[in-house]
């Protein structure tokens, strides 16, 4: 009964439903793959209803060249499918095709407090020193993210570590809405931040997140990189001169080494300790080529499938359009109920 607005005090029962999104603000990185995509596929395989969204409205909070945005959106859809998202079993679409996201975001802009938004570290990081010149959209980004999730009454959101603060804000918005209107209408969504690669770091700086919009292409592995490029990027990845430690504690003060070991563990589906049991005591001259081989083995089939899918952009658009229709069928009634709860007259005949 996920669409019910329970009376306050009664125990709300929300059907388990997963939602998550990725911005088409560039190509998919290994960070997006390990921190998000790979785990989206796991959720799908667990049989939980899953909704995955290419969040183009989020991407335009910073400047996007229209042609590049269109291409990145299709490429990302190809990446989702190539990584294992089945658009029949899961719902896959781009955000701007379901207007409930933008509408609910406006309602949430009137619920969220300026002080809450001001605390968001992602805004501070992305706006940098030139805050006056940042788009207003970048500031209210978390309202839109809350709308993405709550328009589906999603109960679980698999994300990387960097999104934890936004998920907490989503819970605060849901809680304030429920409290202000005396309902238990929105669930308090749980973030799912799991695995050894919840924060994949830059290959050039182990203290910075690997990011698709980093100026240096050498800082990241792109899912579209060929085998030689992957090998070269790992070979040139910044490390220290020490051999790998035998125990996990030995990685504590070594961010670059820790990052590469975590990436290996996530790709091999094993623990950091397992990786060190195999490579502890060995230098990067041995470990980096082994890591490159593993990455090529796991990523090459995805890359090849993405390229195949990208040869038929009409088919990708058809998949996204169909996904948007299915998403709209869930989100629209939730949004309508939300308008009613807030006191809006809704008398237009249904389209
Ligand atoms: N380095 C990362 N390690 C683990 N998870 C990551 N994610 C992103 N980078 C890493 C996860 O991928 C999902 C989609 O993220 P996003 O594209 O919506 O935005 P982002 O987190 O801001 O990613 P980028 O690559 O840094 O994009 P830009 O450069 O455009 O800002 C999220 O679940 C995120 O946690």
Descriptive notes:
The two termini are 25 Å apart. The protein has helices at 30-45, 56-59, 66-83, 100-109, 114-118, 121-127, 136-150, 164-181, 227-235, 255-268, 272-279, 284-310, 313-342; strands at 17-22, 49-54, 91-94, 156-158, 190-192. It has 351 residues and is mainly alpha-helical. The strands form two sheets. A three-stranded parallel β-sheet has the order 1-2-3. A two-stranded parallel ribbon has the order 4-5. Helix 3 (66-83) crosses helix 12. Strand 4 (156-158), helix 8 (164-181) and strand 5 form a beta-alpha-beta unit. Mean pLDDT is 94; it is low at 7-11. It is 52% helix and 6% strand. Bound molecules: adenosine-5'-tetraphosphate. Residues 22-23, 25-26, 29, 31-32, 35-36, 159-160, 162-163, 197-200, 209-213 line the site of adenosine-5'-tetraphosphate (AQP).
Brief summary of the model shown:
The protein is mainly α and 351 residues long. The chain contains 13 helices and 5 strands.
* CATH class group of the largest domain: Alpha Beta
Largest sheet: 3 strands, parallel
Distance N to C terminus: 25 Å
| Number of distinct helices | 13
Low-confidence stretches: 7-11
Say which CATH homologous superfamily of the largest domain is assigned. HUPs
Q: Mean pLDDT, nearest integer?
A: 94
Strand content: 5-15%
- CATH topology-level fold name of the largest domain: Rossmann fold
């Amino acid at each position: 009964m996920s669409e019910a607005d329970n009376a306050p005090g009664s125990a709300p029962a929300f059907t388990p439903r997963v939602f998550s999104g990725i911005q088409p603000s560039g190509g998919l990185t290994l960070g997006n793959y390990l921190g998000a995509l790979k785990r989206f596929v796991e959720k799908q395989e667990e049989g939980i209803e899953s909704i995955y969204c290419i969040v183009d409205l989020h991407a335009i909070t910073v400047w996007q060249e229209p042609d590049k945005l269109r291409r990145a959106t299709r490429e990302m859809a190809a990446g989702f499918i190539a990584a294992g998202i089945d658009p029949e079993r899961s719902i896959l679409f781009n955000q701007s095709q379901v207007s409930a996201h933008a509408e609910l975001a406006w309602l949430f802009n009137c619920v969220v407090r300026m002080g809450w938004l001001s605390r968001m570290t992602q805004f501070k990081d992305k706006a940098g020193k030139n805050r006056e010149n940042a788009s207003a959209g970048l500031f209210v980004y978390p309202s839109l993210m809350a709308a993405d999730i709550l328009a589906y009454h999603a109960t679980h959101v698999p994300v990387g570590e960097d999104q934890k603060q936004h998920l907490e804000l989503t819970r605060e918005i849901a809680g304030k809405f429920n409290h202000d209107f005396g309902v238990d209408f929105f669930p308090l969504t749980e973030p799912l931040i799991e695995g050894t690669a919840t924060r994949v770091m830059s290959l050039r700086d182990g203290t910075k997140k690997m990011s698709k919009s980093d100026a240096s292409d050498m800082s990241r592995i792109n899912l579209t990189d060929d085998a030689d490029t992957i090998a070269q990027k790992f070979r040139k990845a910044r490390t220290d001169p020490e051999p790998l430690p035998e125990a996990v504690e030995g990685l504590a003060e070594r961010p670059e080494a820790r990052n590469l070991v975590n990436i290996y563990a996530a790709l091999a589906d094993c623990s950091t300790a397992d990786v060190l049991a195999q490579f502890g005591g060995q230098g990067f001259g041995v470990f980096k080529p082994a890591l490159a081989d593993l990455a090529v083995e796991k990523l090459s089939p995805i890359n090849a499938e993405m390229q195949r899918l990208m040869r038929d952009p009409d088919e990708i658009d058809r998949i996204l359009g169909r996904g948007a229709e299915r998403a709209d069928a869930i989100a629209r009634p939730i949004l309508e109920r939300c308008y009613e709860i807030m006191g809006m007259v809704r008398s237009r005949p249904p389209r």
